[in-house]
Amino acid sequence: MSFALYRRPGGVIFLDDDRDYLEMLAEVMPLGWYVRLFLRPVACIDLMLREPPQWEADAWIQQEIIKRWREGASLIPQILQYWREDGSARFALTRVCVVDYSMPAMSGLRALSELTGWSGSRILLTGRADEQLAVSAFNRGLIDQFIPKQSPEIRLRLTDAIQSLRQLPDARHQQIWRATLTREQHALLCEPAIAQALENLSIRQGWIEHVVIGAPFGVLALDPKGGVSWLQLEPAEKLRELAEMAESQGWNASTVQDIRAGKRLLDLELQLALGSAQQAQPRQAFAMDDEPARLYASLFSVPDDLGPGFMKSHERFLATCGERQLQD
């Protein structure tokens, strides 16, 4: 297990010729998801084939951030600028497509085969007579999961399957942001206890998007309302260096000792990255794994005027989409 280096919410599309079934899905899918519902394969396919160029453009922006970082630009201001300038466009890109196999105009597998260049996850809904075909399609890598429509607790099973696929890190994003990490930093994130602790923290904080970077080491994260948090990560062997920096800035002996012991951290690198005139502040720290702890963390807030804010938040994006409507 490894903590995702980049994660953000993505849309979910349902394609089914059963109007009643789609209306039921519109009612029961989580309100925090961007959901679109299609009755006809052609309209669904046309929309989804417009997405690959948008994915490419988004990946190019992220790669440019890494390029400028290698040339000396700080990562944190660039990521904040990316979020501000993108607004909510990235939230509309589809991560999971759920298709009914048995449709009169075109089978679900045929519809999915038309999605050339679209790299999201695919779920096939099947009837009893379709399961062997679905097993074959799964074994050939044409779909990520298949779920019989007659399954008990179909709503719960479908929701869990979609959520697990929405949470999977995108391989291209992983590759892009891995470039900022040292081998030692990446190894820490791959430790099961640390990865699980970071995942649990992400859930508790309600983060809907985050980026893990190595310079400085930490997680820049967005909440649904567009607020930004910085989770500073400090390997145990770096605490002494941070304590010496705090001492050089005139912090008292008690604070310096707390930093050296992993009880508090100083957001010096964050303030430097932001170009802030404010003095770095110590904040209570906590270990991300069991004793002897290898990684410590502290949570800091990023000023609201530097983040995307509510008008470009995921919460407002969902609100502007209105009620879930079936599309012919």
Question: Gist?
Answer:
This protein is 43% helix and 20% strand. The chain is of the alpha/beta class. The chain has 2 domains: 6-172 and 322-327, Response regulator (Rossmann fold); 181-222 and 228-301, no CATH class.
Mind explaining what this structure looks like?
The protein has 328 residues and is an alpha/beta fold. It folds into two domains: 6-172 and 322-327, Response regulator (Rossmann fold, 3-Layer(aba) Sandwich), CATH 3.40.50; 181-222 and 228-301, no CATH class. Helix content is 43%, strand content 20%. The chain contains 14 helices and 14 strands. The protein has helices spanning 19-28, 41-48, 51-70, 75-86, 108-113, 131-139, 154-167, 171-178, 183-189, 192-205, 239-248, 253-260, 268-274, 314-321, and strands at residues 6-7, 11-15, 35-38, 94-100, 121-126, 145-148, 209-214, 217-222, 228-235, 264-266, 282-284, 286-287, 295-301, 326-327. The protein has a six-stranded antiparallel beta sheet with strand order 1-7-8-9-13-12. It has a six-stranded parallel beta sheet with strand order 6-5-4-2-3-14, with helices on both faces.
Mean pLDDT: 93
Helix content: 40-55%
Order of the strands making up the biggest sheet: 1-7-8-9-13-12
Shape: elongated
Percent strand? 15-25%
Radius of gyration: 22 Å
Q: What's the total count of β strands?
A: 14
Which structural class do the helices and strands define? alpha/beta
Could you give the distance between the termini? 41 Å
* Tally of separate helices: 14
> What name goes with the CATH superfamily of the largest domain?
Response regulator
